[in-house]
Design goal:
About 30% of the residues are buried. Helix 8 packs antiparallel against helix 9. The chain is mostly helical and about 190 residues long.
Length: about 190
């Protein structure tokens, strides 16, 4: 039974996530827009109601230009949190990469890396921090592969594999390991592939 504003929000979050899971992404967008309106009515509501962001839903739908436009609109909600800004630029790089604009993708990934390193200048990186940095470097490596810079991609992909292994994210480690093999094949270094 729905008794409160919070209950209404929970129902729409459950619906939105179910629609995303079942790939009914048009319905997920509708649910997201209802959540945006509910949030406007109650500004103190939980910001996680709007996760994943609409730009991410567009990305899942393979609407990359819409992802980029929408993400730009979401920037103001993130700009106070450096970690979210790192995610913003990393995701923006993904969106540009899928839109076949590798130069813009590299610029975004490099900015994400620069902000991340600046945030962590005076501290020892945790396993989770190294994983985030490895993800960014892996994305840079994959983009370099698209630009046929296989030699440049190799050290970045190796770092992604190491940091993913350390974080026990074997799925991501396997993806980067496969990309490393592709690099070695392209460089005709079959003994390393």
């Amino acid at each position: 039974k729905i008794k409160s504003f919070k209950d209404s929000c929970r129902v729409f979050v459950i619906l939105k996530n179910a629609y995303i899971f079942t790939r009914a992404l048009n319905k997920a967008i509708e649910a997201h827009k209802v959540l945006v309106e509910l949030k406007k009515r109650n500004l103190k509501s939980d910001p996680s109601l709007l996760e994943p962001a609409l730009s991410t839903i567009y990305y899942e739908m393979k609407f990359y230009k819409e992802s980029l436009k929408q993400q730009f609109l979401e920037y103001n909600d993130l700009k106070k949190d450096s970690f979210k800004i790192v995610g913003f630029y990393n995701n923006r790089g993904l969106f540009w990469n899928k839109d076949n604009n590798q130069d813009s993708a590299l610029a975004c990934y490099n900015l994400a890396k620069k902000i991340f390193l600046k945030m962590n200048t005076h501290k020892q990186l945790t396993v989770d921090d190294e994983f985030v940095l490895g993800l960014i470097e892996g994305n840079i490596g994959q983009t370099l592969m698209t630009l046929n810079d296989y030699k440049g991609a190799i050290p970045l992909l190796k770092q992604d594999v190491r940091s993913s292994d350390n974080a026990k994210n074997y799925h991501n480690a396997a993806i980067s390991q496969l990309e490393l093999s592709r690099c070695y094949l392209q460089l005709n270094q079959l003994d390393l592939s």
